[in-house]
Design brief:
This protein is of the alpha+beta class. Helix content is about 45%, strand content about 25%. It folds into 2 domains: about 50 residues; about 80 residues, ACT domain (Alpha-Beta Plaits), CATH 3.30.70.260.
């Protein structure tokens, strides 16, 4: 049985709702695979890129001041997150930064890391948004 993207997305969203705050990328991936196998979809072949990654996209911006990169990276390091890509730009007095982060080795789930980033955001008086790579891809698809 070859699942259509819509069907796979529906199963994934249902699984995320069922897992609630415990919906880490690995748990979602495992639960979705199990549901597909239980429904007779064991013939479905999971190819690289078919299943959710453990990556998130962090975007941040605000007035520039010393310590922004240090504050954000320290909090990510404390959560055992791996920064895979980073770009930053100063535009006059404004600071912007985008990161691709792998959270699969973290002991925390996405919601807990988002809460940590919210604290950093408040301390540094900047805006930080953290969203799962899959959500980011679906939102920006043509």
């Amino acid at each position: 049985m070859k699942l259509k993207e819509e069907e796979l997305r529906k199963i994934t969203l249902e699984t995320i709702q069922e897992l609630g705050v415990y919906a880490t990328p690995e748990k979602v991936k495992d639960a979705v695979r199990k549901k597909i196998e239980e429904s007779g979809g064991d013939q479905y072949i999971f190819k690289k890129g078919d299943v959710s990654s453990g990556r998130v996209i962090l975007t941040s911006f605000g007035l520039n001041k010393p310590g922004i990169v240090a504050g954000v990276t320290k909090a990510l390091s404390d959560s055992n997150c791996d920064i895979q890509d980073l770009t930053q730009k100063l535009m006059g007095d404004f600071f912007t930064m985008i990161m691709v982060i792998d959270i699969s080795a973290s002991q925390k789930d996405l919601k807990q890391i988002q809460e940590d980033m919210s604290k950093v955001s408040d301390e540094l008086k900047i805006k930080i948004y953290l969203q799962h790579e899959d959500v980011f891809r679906y939102m920006h698809r043509i």
